[in-house]
Amino acid sequence: MSSSKEALAHPASSADAAPGDQPGAAGRANGRGTAPPGSSSWRSRLYRWDMKASPYAFIAPFFIVFGAFSLVPLLYTAWYSLHNVQLANLDGQTWTGLDNYKNLLSSDFFWNALWNTFTIGVISTVPQLLMAIGLAHLLNYKLRGSTVWRVVMLTPYATSVAAATLVFVLLYSWDGGMINWLLEFVGIDPVNWRESDWGSQFAVSSIVIWRWTGYNALIYLAAMQAIPADLYESAAIDGANRWQQFIHVTIPQLRPTILFTVVVSTIGATQLFGEPLLFGGVSGSKGGSGHQYQTLGLYMYDQGWIIGNLGKASAIAWSMFLILLIVAVIQLLVSRRLRKSQ
Amino acid sequence: MSTHELTAPQSKAGSGRPRRERPRVMGAGKQLHAGPLTYVILSVFALVSLAPLVWTAIAASRTDRRLAETPPPLWFGGNLFKNMDRAWEEAGLGKAMFNTMFVAGTITVSTVLFATLAGFAFAKLRFRFSGLLLLLTIGTMMIPPQLAVVPLYLWMADLGWSNQLQTVILPTLCTAFGTFFMRQYLVQALPSELIEAARVDGASSLRVVWHVVFPAARPAMAVLGLLTFVFAWNDFLWPIIALNQENPTVQVALNSLGTGYVPDQAVIMAGALLGTLPLLIAFLLFGKQIVGGIMQGAIKG
Predict the structure, then answer these.
(1) Residues near A252 by Cβ (< 8 Å), separated by ≥ 6?
(2) How close is the nearest chain A Cα to the Cα of B89, in Å?
(3) What separation in angstroms does the CA of B132 have from each of A195, B122, B127, B175?
(4) Considering its fold, how many domains does chain B have in total?
(5) B175 in a domain, yes or no?
(6) Is the N or C terminus of chain A more exposed, i.e. has fewer CB atoms within 10 Å?
(7) pTM for this one?
(8) Coil, strand, or helix at residue B276?
(9) Complex prediction ipTM
(10) Mean pLDDT within B261-278
(11) Cβ distance of B67 and A170 shorter than 8 Å
C-alpha cells in the first residue's frame, strides 16, 4: 500500500512504470488521484452515476444478444407454431391455432423421432458417463506425462461433429469398412450399420461417445481432485480397499458433478442433430430409409427446410423445449430424493 | 495482493498436480502412482481417441477406389496433397477456412471482451437483481438453439442477409457460458481490495476494468478465447441453415461434402482433415491450457 502515496505525489512517473506488472498500482497511478468523491458536485454526481449504471452497462451486451437472438425469436417461434408458415409462400401466413401441435401428436414420425431421441440419448449418454468416470479415476493417479494423457483424451473434442461423422460413416460402411473388417477378424458377422435399427442407432451414438467421453472425464477429474484427502485416509484406516474407497468415497463426493454432467448430456441428447444428419448422407434429414435414427432435431430440420413447413418446425422446436423442461423437473426431483435418502 | 495470488487458480487447474504430499496411510486411494495396468487401459483409450484421426489422414492419402476395397488401407498412400487440393478448390474448403477464421475470430474477441465485463459485474459489483440476473444467465444455457432458428432465418431473409457471414456472427457475440466462466474465475482471482483501492483514488468503472480487471483476468480470458474459438469453429446447426455452399463456413462445406457435393471418399476425408487441422494445431500448442480451462470451468458443480 505504500506505493499509493507515491502515486498520488508523482502521477506521471509511476504511471509510466506501473502498467502491466502490478495491476493494483497501475489502477491507482492512472486514477491520477484527482477525483475523490465530492471534490466538485459535477464530478461526484458523475461518479455516483457511474457506480450505479456501469454494472448494468457491463452485463448489457450479453442480455442484448440473448434478447435479440434467443428470447425474442423463441417467442416468435411460439407464434409461428400457431400459424401455417410455408417456406415457399412466406407472405401467406394464416392462423391455425393448435393444428400444428395436433398434427404432431397424431403423426407416427413425431413419436418415432421422440422415441429415437430417447433411445439414442440413453445409448450415447450412459456408457459415455460411466466410461468417463472410470477414465477420470485412472487419470487421477500419479502419471508420467499426465498433461499429455489429458490432451490426448480431449482431442476428439477438437473434431467437429461434421468431420467426425464423415470419418465414422466410412469406418462403419457395409463392405470395406474398417469396423466390419475388424469384426470379421474376430469372427463376428458384418453388421449393416446404415440400415439396421439398433446398428444404426449404436453407430450414431458411438460418434457422440467418441467426441465427449474425454471431455466429461476431465470434468470428473477436476471434481475428484477437489475431494479432501483425509476422507480417503479415514476410509483406509477403516479397512476399505481401493474399490470400496471408489464406491463409498469417490462416487458420493462426485454426486453434484454427476448430476451436472447428466443435465448437460441430456440437453445435448435432446438436440442431437448433426451426427444423424451426416450419418444419413444424401437423404440425411430422413434419418435412414426407415427413419430409424431420425431424432427430434433432425425431424424439425426435415419438416422446416426440406419439406418447407416452418410452422410445423416451430411446433416441433417448442415440443423439444417442453420435453426438456419436463425431463429437467424429473431430474431435479430425483436428485432431491437422492439427497434426502443420503 | 501479490501476483502469486492472481495466478494461483490457473496454475492449479493447468498443471493438475495440486497435491504433492504422499498419502500418509498405505492404500489411501489418492494420488497413488499408477500401476502398469493403468497405463495399458489409458493406452487403449488413447488409441481409440486418436485412431479415427490418424485413419482420416490415411484415407485422405488414398484414392476413392482403394477406399471401397477390403481390407481397408492401414498405411499412407501418395495422394494426400492431390486430395487436399481438390477439397480446397472443388469442395470450397479454401474459402470456407478463411470465412471460418473471420467468423470464429470475431466471435472469440467479442465474447471474451463482453463476457469479461459481465463476469466482472456479476463477480464483484453490487447491483439490484444481480443474483436473479446471474441465475437467468445460467438458465439460458438450457434453451436449445432450435428454438430460435425459424424466426432468425425469416428475419435474415427479410434483411437480404441470407448467405452473409454476419448472420452467423451476430447471434454468438456473447455467450452465457463465457459470462459464467469469467464470473467464476474473477470471484476468486480478483481481490476486492484492489478495486476498492482504485475507487478510493477516484477511478471510474472503465478505468477499473482496464487497469485492474483485465490484468487479473488475463489468464482466464486466454482460456475462454481458446474454448470459444473451438466452439465457434465447430458450430453446426445455425450455419448450415443460414449459409450455403456459395459462401460456406468449414462445417457448411463439410455438410455439403457429406451430402454428395464431391462424391469421392478420399476427397471427403481430405476435407474432414483440412477442416480439423487448425484446431488440432491449436490443441498441440495450447492443449494444456484448454484442458485446464475445461477443468476449471467444471468446478462450479
Answers:
(1) A342
(2) 18
(3) 49, 10, 11, 17
(4) 1
(5) yes
(6) C
(7) 0.85
(8) helix
(9) 0.85
(10) 92
(11) yes
